[in-house]
């Protein structure tokens, strides 16, 4: 029996070493060695009643392909070669990814990987933008009816925004920016334009109906084309210029038949178009500047705080004496109700503007313009239903033509880059 076990052990060992010479590098490479792992089920007795020798018991160690308890450890030379092979593989992978259509488009990921979550996120942001804008216009109009002081209302809205921004920075909900004096100087014109745009909007809302103010503000594409020609040197196509005709015609038709028409309200809305479009163009340029490491939230936040500091002296010089508790009592205004409505208007004002800026940083200006034109339809319809604004058929037709022209303009601007790419 002992001789039979010895024979079995000898034959097994000879077969193992033969397999080792076939499956391993030549023994001239001293960098390969074997280590013993914990015993595995493979060390169970074989069908012949033999056990494989255990490492460290004087028997030769078997390679991993023969005995599961052994693992080769590469030397430093082989590790370096493996690292070079891994680096080469990563280089080939990066080159293939760079040559793929997704990388060429700047996405970095296939469309199906993040297309649906991104679409849902943008849809939720647009829905919130619309709702906040509707409630802002309703509460703001109610406040302006009670106290017709647009400069004071604007300052209060910027103060509300500054409060939320300060709270956001103190609670570390968003990282606080660290800017140089040069960067503050670059943001100052944006803040001034931002402040004037909201002052003009409130002046218009105080003089005419909400629906009419937003019908006039449908002229924004006209000012966008004008600013692009003057400052960017862009020449619009004939179709884009043609889309401005129904916009202008619809606004004129709605203005002629508007019951609440007022020249101050009309020109204030037009001035708001000019300032808001200038702000959008300059903001997009600022966000695209690589030297200014500032995100859209912090840019809007700094603009809001600076706009509050700019609007406060203007409010005190124009309306500061008129707006007082004595005036509110004499006008028979419910101060508590007024404060609640003003606070709601200021809150909606801040967050709808912030969502708008976040969208502007995530989508193209054309997509933002399309969403803005649809938002104007929602605001006009909501304000007409809430305030029961009288609309004649011709007035409604003019508003519809102007909004249809805005949508056509947006579609033509969106189709322009595709024709160039083709």
Automatic annotation (TrEMBL):
GO molecular function: carboxylic acid transmembrane transporter activity; organophosphate ester transmembrane transporter activity
Bilayer disposition of the protein: Multi-pass membrane protein
Transmembrane helix keyword on record: yes
Residue ranges annotated for the Sugar phosphate transporter domain, each copy included: 120-410
Keywords: Chloroplast, Membrane, Plastid, Transit peptide, Transmembrane, Transmembrane helix, Transport
NCBIfam families: tpt (TIGR00817)
Name by which UniProt lists this protein: Sugar phosphate transporter domain-containing protein
